[in-house]
Amino acid sequence: QERLLRPTVLASRAYAVAPSDGFIKLDAMENPYALPASLRSAWLAALQDADLHRYPSPRPEALMRALAEHGGIPPEMGMLLGNGSDELIQILISAVAGAGRPVLAVEPSFVMYRIIAEQQGLAYHSVALDADFQLDLSAFLAEMERCQPAIVFLDWPNNPSGQMHPVASLEAICAAAPGLVVVDEAYHAFSADSFAGHLGRWPNLLLLRTLSKEGLAGLRLGFLAGPPAWIDELDKLRLPYNINILTQKSVAFALRHAAVFAEQAQEICAEREFVYERLRALGIQVWPSRANFLLFALPGRANAVHAGLKEAGILIKAFTGHPRLGDHLRVSIGTPPENRAFLAALEELL
Ligand SMILES: *Cc1c(COP(=O)(O)O)cnc(C)c1O
After folding, report:
1. Topology adopted by domain 7-36+259-349
2. In this structure, which residue's CA is closest to atom 1 in ligand 1?
């Protein structure tokens, strides 16, 4: 193996997903609500004429137009669909992969930026967020000037802190970036803001979205929007039939019923504020969040509490061994009963 495999592959580790059968699952930012029973038969009917014996459309134009329209993407922008936005991050990074073309992000950030960059042999640079997970714009601009990244990834809101950096900071980064700037709006459904209206203002600005966090994680669909000149180049790296027919049909169906998902997102935001207040009332340091999760700190006992919650059948996210986040835990917002079970078990453990 050492003889055949690239050193970056040998050095990397497989992405670990905790077994979750039977748990109240609050670790992966999924929408806790299933497709309502009232929609299930209509959804199955929509799948009935799927041509399973044919390859799916490689560029489903009508679906992309519907996604753009629903997502507030200016119509003159190009769009690339991915098998989850993870695949689009992989396409972006493999498009620029090479010596002297690093990737830059804030720390902490969504982990796949680093994992994919390192797997592809790119240097990965990061600029630490401050103690309250706010962006130090001048430090970021200085590092960008120094390392000349081919791609800057900005998760907005940030995962895992839920913070949204000021629009003016994003504008300053776009204006000064020597390469691509990818604004990753994975939590758009919960953030009440978007950078989509700025697409086209800078030729190197791209916008990344996913349907995973708002109720369709099982389908695996993300999209990248931006100037056609960039999208057309990146599209060459997409495998021809990366979005299967069941996903295409299900997403089209979901867009026709977008109000159902919007209502769920609203419910999740209301619960987020409830859980936030309850954590504060317990004397826990917790950061206000514009996403469907909350980050909180339990100095010296994050691991013990994480294990205790697991014992109680509740799975949340720990950052064991992380230099910055070792004392932190991240909980995804679930249904009202799930959130109350989490809070009760947590209180018990404090
Ligand atoms: C979850 C997440 C993604 C990945 O989404 P998929 O579409 O499910 O691959 C991308 N970016 C951020 C910031 C995320 O938190």
Report:
1. Aspartate Aminotransferase, domain 1 (3.90.1150)
2. 186
